[in-house]
Design a protein that fits this description.
Layout lengths: L3 H6 L1 H10 L6 H37 L3 H37 L19 E6 L12 H4 L5 E2 H8 L5 E2 L1 H21 L3 E2 L5 E2 L1 H6 L11 E2 L5 E2 L4 H5 L6 E3 L5 E10 L18 E11 L4 H19 L3 E5 L11 E9 L4 E10 L3 H6 L2 E3 L8 E2 L1 E9 H11 L7 E2 L13 E2 L3
Parallel strand pairs: 4-9, 8-14
Antiparallel strand pairs: 1-11, 2-3, 5-7, 6-7, 9-10, 10-16, 11-12, 12-13, 13-16, 14-15, 17-18
Helix pairs in contact: 3-4, 7-12
Length: 426
């Protein structure tokens, strides 16, 4: 959500930020709506004051037996009540229209975010590791996996497209990846493990920016709740409607949960294999910080995600997203893209974003600066994948494949696999 005061004070800056997102200028329309709402509020307050004054005068006129004055004042009170009802309706309607317009607009990009329209304008800022050199033709995970325990046909029969059944040691490898990630993030990187709800209310989905704009990307239950598309929704909303002490920040949380996405806008994309699924596991990282802490926490979170890839020995690159390719709530985002030999290219495996106070305003999440007893400020929120388990499984299958169709287990996962060092075709 945007700060209407900031829009009033710097309309040209706001429009320039929207332009970087590919949107037309809107400050003039927003300010006009805000002025209409404030005029209704001012008129309502004046009418209330005059009604109270006239009501008291009625009593005084009756006490003085001035029936004509009392009647005139009573007529004025009745007229004021009608006017107040109209002003209340106008205040409510313009307020709702203003809130709806502000809620539909994405966050403004940070000044160091590059300009650009889409992923072609993103900027690579670093690489780690060398893609493996095979003496055979590398295969994609969708071709390697079925002999090792990836069952796409059964999943399709049970649930339809974009689902996968994992069997035997493949299922154990998927579990091992999730547990390894969670152990690293809680043990080495200082995130507190949380087991959050997988179903959330409208307010929670609105708070992190999924609603109202991305309703079609979510799954909704018959009682109106939403299946989380990422644990970011549950974790970030743990501070909604709260005032935190500055001394408690930064607050770092992590969760390993199933995630559910309708992929409404992904028709025809990544239809083979596990890259784009309706249901998948992910280790999510969320940080709640002060504005002064958020930039350093952003870098720290990216490092925490990169650490997983490096321990697994998976080559990757870090990419700074351009303004036109960032998510709705983000003001700055780094993507980590892992090398997939079967596809011969890097693919996103983690997206780490600093949302500034954008989500905090939607959730009314604040903190009280140390030494102050009354004033509060909005927190900054950050989120990122640490990592997406299914896509990491894909990367392991493709980077650790052998010519005979077997897949070696990365060293750091072998303890989680009971000493198993290889997946062998059935």
């Amino acid at each position: 959500m945007h700060d209407i005061r900031a829009i009033r004070e710097n309309p040209s800056d706001f429009d320039a930020g929207l332009a970087r997102r590919g949107l037309a200028p809107l400050s003039e329309a927003i300010i006009a709506l805000d002025e209409k709402k404030r005029a209704a509020t001012t008129g309502l307050q004046a009418a209330q004051a005059r009604r109270n004054e006239a009501s008291r005068a009625v009593g005084q006129a009756k006490a003085a037996r001035d029936e004509a004055a009392a009647a005139s004042l009573m007529a004025e009170v009745a007229s004021l009540k009608e006017r107040m009802a109209a002003l209340e309706a106008e205040e409510r309607e313009t307020g709702e229209a203003l809130d709806a317009q502000l809620a539909a607009l994405p966050n403004i990009p940070a000044t160091d975010v590059p300009d650009g329209a889409d992923e072609n304008d993103n900027v690579e800022v670093g690489r780690w590791g060398e893609p493996p050199a095979f003496d055979f033709e590398a295969r994609e995970h969708a071709d390697i996996g079925p002999a090792l325990g990836l069952d796409f046909e059964s999943a399709a029969a049970i649930a339809g497209a974009r689902f996968t059944v994992l069997r035997g040691r493949m299922a154990r490898l998927n579990r091992a990846l999730g547990q390894f990630m969670l152990d690293v993030q809680t043990g080495g990187n200082g995130y507190t493990e949380v087991a959050p709800p997988l179903l959330v209310r409208d307010e929670a989905a609105f708070g992190t920016g999924q609603l109202p704009k991305f309703r079609e990307d979510l799954f909704q239950t018959t009682d109106g709740r939403w299946l989380i598309p990422t644990a970011e929704v549950s974790l970030t909303n743990l501070v909604r409607e709260r005032i935190l002490d500055e001394a408690a920040l930064p607050l770092r949380m992590t969760a390993l949960t199933p995630c559910f996405r309708s992929e409404a806008g992904a028709a025809g994309r990544d239809t083979r294999g596990m890259i784009r699924q309706h249901q998948f596991d992910k280790v999510e990282l969320v940080t709640v910080a002060t504005p002064e802490q958020s930039e350093a926490e952003h870098e720290r979170m990216v490092d925490a995600a990169e650490n997983i890839l490096e321990q697994l020995g998976l080559p990757y690159r870090r990419v700074l997203l351009c303004a036109g390719d960032m998510g709705f709530s983000a003001r700055k985002t780094f993507d980590l893209e892992v090398w997939l030999p079967g596809q011969g290219r890097y693919r996103e495996i983690s997206s780490v974003s600093n949302c500034g106070d954008f989500q905090a305003r939607r959730m009314n999440a604040r903190f009280r600066p140390s030494g102050e007893t009354r004033g509060t400020r909005f927190v900054h929120t950050l989120n990122g994948s640490g990592l997406a388990v299914g896509r990491t499984l894909v990367a392991v299958l493709e980077n650790y494949q052998d010519a005979d169709g077997s897949v070696r287990i990365p060293d750091v996962l072998r303890a989680y696999m009971g000493g198993i060092d290889k997946l062998t075709p059935a």
